[in-house]
Amino acid sequence: MKTIGLVLVSFAALAQAVPQAGGFGSSTMLRFGCSQIVIDRIDPLVNPDQLPSPHMHQVVGGDMFNVTIPSADIGNMAKCTTCSYSDDFSNYWTANLYFKARNGSYKRVPQIPNRLLFGDQFTTKTTGGFVVYYVSDGKNMVTAFKPGFRMLTGDANQRAKIGSGKKSQSCFRCYNGPNFGGDNAAPCADAKLDTEELPKGQCQGIRSNVLYPTCWDGVNLDSPDHKSHVAYPSNGPATFTGFSTGGKCPSTHPVKIPQIMLEIVWDTRQFNNKAEWPADGSQPFVLSTGDKTGYGQHGDYVFGWKDNSLQKAMDSGAGCMGASCGGLKTQANAPAADCKVPVRYPENFDGWIDTLPGMTE
């Protein structure tokens, strides 16, 4: 298979990502692009009504995103979305990545879209943003999220490894070599290439993956920490096994839900001048939370699919793959790119800046 541009993830590689799922051929795997709807220092999940929130986020999805997002059915309230599936008015957001130069100044690392998505012309033309996955295990039916559902994975304050082994809910991969590495491996599936911490060496690009829990308590649409109502399978994610869709759900969280994964590619090529790196040679990248380790990578999610469109898609099995799924409406790039929300806390976050937004150093 010919490699085009920065990133290539093959269906064969993704099939390897779910060996425990009972056959990838019967799985549902939505894989679609969403461009940025805003970059702003607000967080309606963790810091509702707080303006500004402690750190900056990059956001994709529907135009209901605001300092607070109502718990009502936003899938039937929103008017536009930046995602290629035009019935997905959900919001997904993560921290930004910055380069810290030797002189102490910062510059935001741009995002580059995946270059080849099996004929998905939408994703290859997005500005910023990232790719969103919804995956079932191919054996057990999954229950789509309900209006008002929201969750958080990861911890913005984490700065060190917790426990032993590698955890597959968050990882980074350094792209290098000809054609930027020509990567075709499944997300978080290779313990040698995927790391929980930010790569230490120079990269042509850094792939970032965030995987959400796949089990739900079946009752609560949210919880005080935005995590307790969901869980990972009881047999994972203890090791790097790619998608954690096939494990058994714990008795406290018996309902199988789709695995959401966010895939971001940071274009680090302009930051490979060693003279601008720290004098001690340490890696110079830092998340907008002030985290230089990468352990604080996290992802927020507020459900907003229109009506029962997501449930229909997840029930389709092998009929729903990639950015084309029977019955799901799609849109062209132009109307998606036109979907924006106002910046609620205007500040300088691009160009060279002295401090990270919200940080003291």
How would you characterize this protein structure?
Keywords: Signal. It holds the Pfam family DUF1996. This is DUF1996 domain-containing protein. By secondary structure, the chain is mainly beta. The chain has helices at 11-17, 309-314, 333-338; strands at 29-34, 36-40, 57-61, 91-95, 97-100, 106-108, 130-135, 150-154, 170-175, 194-195, 205-211, 215-216, 230-231, 255-256, 259-266, 285-287, 298-302, 320-322, 324-325. It has one domain (11-338). The protein contains 3 helices and 19 strands. The termini are far apart. Residues 1-25 have low confidence and may be disordered.
Summarize the structure.
By secondary structure, the chain is mainly beta. 5% of the residues lie in helices and 22% in strands.
